[in-house]
Amino acid sequence: MASDPNSAGGSGTTRDGASVNVPAKETKKKDEKKDVDLSEEDLALKQQLELYVEMVQDTDPGLQKVALESMRQELRTSTSSMTSVPKPLKFLRPHYATLNAYYDTMADSEVKKFLADILSVLAMTMSAEGERESLKYRLLGSEGDIGSWGHEYVRNLAGEIAQEYAKRQHNAEYEAVDLLMEVEDLDMLGDDVDRTNNKRLGDQVDPTNNKRTCLYLTSAARYLPGPDDMLVLDIAYSIYLKFEEYPSALQTALFLDNMQYVEKVFTSCDDLLRKKQFCYILARQGITYELNKEMVADDADRETLQEIVNNTKLSEGYLTLARDIEVMEPKSPEDIYKAHSLDGRASAGASVDSARQNLAATFVNAFVNAGFGQDKLMTVPSEASSGGSSGNWLFKNKEHGKTSAAASLGMILLWDVDSGLSQLDKYFHSNDNHVLAGAFLGVGIVNCGIKNECHPALALLADSINKGDSSVRIGAIMGLGLAYAGSHNEEVAQAIINALTDRSESELGEPLTQLLPLGLGLLYLGKQENVEATAEVSKTFNEKIRKYCEMTLLSCAYAGTGNVLKVQHLLDQCAQDPEKGESHQGPAVLGIAMVAMAEELGLEMAIRLLERLLQYREQNIRRAVPLALGLLCISNPKVNVMDTLSRLSHDTDTEVAMAAVISLGLIGAGTNNARIAGMLRNLSSYYYKEASLLFCVRIAQGLVHLGKGLLTLAPYHSERFLLSPTALAGIITLLHACLDMKAIILGKYHYVLYFVVLAIQPRMLLTVDENLKPLSVPVRVGQAVDVVGQAGRPKTITGFQTHSTPVLLAAGDRAELATEQYIPLSPILEGFVILKENPDYREDN
Predict the structure, then answer these.
(1) What gap in Å lies between CA 746 and CA 356, rounded to an integer?
(2) 804 φ, ψ to 5°?
């Protein structure tokens, strides 16, 4: 008997001398040959394992278990430190197919799991390429320490996991959604489907791909015809809810305008901090919403959340931003005009119609210092050397000019209800009806967007809407309208219909009468088919206002929907030659912009359409085109639109030029855009002799520097996903007034300009801690990148800079946190965002 160190398997086992007694020189040659002989020990092991395989296929579970336990023991001891293929593994390999086939016939039991463990180890060397059977049986097997099978097994398993991961990362969610849309079976994605069939795609939306799937669904919805678009958003909502993506579910519910869905988001979530974030989202949307006990059980918590929904902290947050950017110093209109930088003609213009110039200065002052609570004209104390008390400035305006001057105080103290009402109080006792009307309008402005349980606006203004003096009546009615915009009141609709039906021919010719159809339209803003009954009633109105009303109702009902058929209908109206006295084509042009502003592609197409109208249609349409362009790019100065408006601002038709100048102000609103500011300064020099156009230039200058560049008029927010109906209503009201510029804006109703306050919002990102106190963190702010339909996890912003919050966000900007120390409670970083500390964060040394 001799020991052979080079025996098969390298295990150093002893063999029978007769079988291995060869000279040392020939050892190498012999090793290269396949050794068919086995030692007694190996033969015994092989026979033992074959017996185990037969026992496994026995009907007695006890016998099966003993066989599998023994097999496991043999494999484990041999694979714990592997230098070559272990003997038990080698001898069991021929039986892999037999065990595999028998496994499929077994009923679920512990024994079956034991067999799966053994098959998992055998599959290391036996499974076909790319089958990943080792991983398959590992998942089907018993739970336990996989390290006990040896490091080679663990290494093999890790490789198969990597292969499986790579195969699963197919990024084909988009193709799947497209296919389901094509076969009209998108319901499969939803959570409310029949689960009897395990292969349904509803199960395929998992935590790794639900965000990509929903992003694709919500983006595709904009291009689908009704009612498919609503179905797609419904499915996105249910997926978001299923995976507890509550802020996204809430935004989808708001897009659907479904208050039951909003309530369901609140009731599904138990985290109070997340509910506070929901309230900030509701407040930004600008809707009136009352929380109930089902949504928030605790009374104290409900009161705190209701305060957030009511926007009571908006002024505080805005002033925090202003202080951080160091722009608290009040600005005077002269700081905006920069007359000293122009040639001699501009200074000569100062003498032209000083009452008109003072009125312009009132508006510029109100827009520039909006929300700051201090300025150099209205709020300066009487002993100040620069220009006397607010009373002095007030009386530098004539008659109806005093209305705008008094109301400007509301704009300066915007969102600060307590200070605003105390400052306006001194005008409530005025004997001058114009001042009283301005004070009432100021009350509405200061309460705009802020809900208060005491209802101060209603208490102060309700008794004045029936006053004898028309200016006081208008002031009180406008004030109430601004304070309660967006509260959906059916009685108002009926009252407007009655007013339009009862008006005489001469009354329908009044400049402000055309705002009545608009008031009716705004009640159905974005409501689509719900407007049809009222549209039928409007056909019974006086023919002078009938078509105007029809166009206004249609454009309001489909505003922000991107409905191509409605755009075609409105274009058709623009293509017809109007009969004498008809004025419905202006609202139709604005309607094209209102409907098409829903998404970027439609917006670009609408700009091109409006260019054609400019070239080929009559003056009454050309006058509305600049206003429509202003609406499409509001607070978003696109260069091509800016150039078009700059060209039109020198148009031979004065009304086209005035509309273009106002629109320049709208597209640059709150941006401090240097190019537009330069254009307007040149225009102020060019039109220094024309009081009307100069007034428009001043208004536009005030708009460009709105809130010293901290505010925006854009009605879209949440990365252009949600449209705030009250904001859009304010802008549309201003644009409809501008359709009759001479009678309204340049006449005695210039205070209609204050309707723009409905759209004013800070363009900020303010991060707050869990106690809702401002928290400064680093954020990256850059140009948003459209990642819809892109594979993997692409970068969502480009060309970014890192700042500390609070920060300003321009149109098309997106922000993301530059630290992992905090977790934002909203996926979209805009407005107020609550941050909570990341429990897994560890600071690097």
Answers:
(1) 9
(2) -100, 140
Distance, CA of 706 to CA of 665 (rounded, Å): 9
Q: Which residues pair with 765 in a beta bridge?
A: 807, 831
Q: How far is Cα 399 from Cα 414, in angstroms, rounded to an integer?
A: 24
Question: Residue 384: its pLDDT value, please?
Answer: 42
Work out the percent of the chain whose per-residue pLDDT is above 90.
17
Phi then psi dihedrals of residue 761, to 5 deg: -145, 145
Helix axis angle, 725-739 to 585-596, nearest 10°: 150
| Per-residue model confidence (pLDDT) at position 735 | 92
**Which pTM value belongs to this model?**
0.78
Cis peptide before 94 (omega within 30 of 0): no
H or E element at residue 657: helix 654-667
- Asked if residues 286 and 486 have their Cβ atoms less than 8 Å apart, the reply is yes
Whether the per-residue pLDDT at 505 is higher than 80: the answer is: no
* Cβ within 8 Å of residue 77, ≥6 positions away: none
Per the DSSP assignment, residues forming a β-bridge with 815 are: 781
- For residues 465 and 436, what is the distance between their CA atoms, to the nearest angstrom? 12
* Strand 716-717 with 722-723, pairing: antiparallel
Count of beta carbons in the 10 Å neighbourhood of residue 477: 17
Per-residue pLDDT tens over the stretch 100-111: 777 778 877 877
Q: How many CA atoms lie within 13 A of 389 on its CB side?
A: 6
Cβ(631)–Cβ(731) under 8 Å?
yes
DSSP 5-61: TT-GGG---EE-HHHH---GGGHHHHHHS------HHHHHHHHHHHHHHHHHTSS-H
String of DSSP letters for 503-563? --HHHHTSGGGGHHHHHHHHTTTT-GGGGHHHHHHHTTS-HHHHHHHHHHHHHHHTTTS--
Most confidently predicted of 138-152, 232-246, 348-362, 431-445: 232-246
How far separated are the first and last CA of the chain, in Å rounded? 65
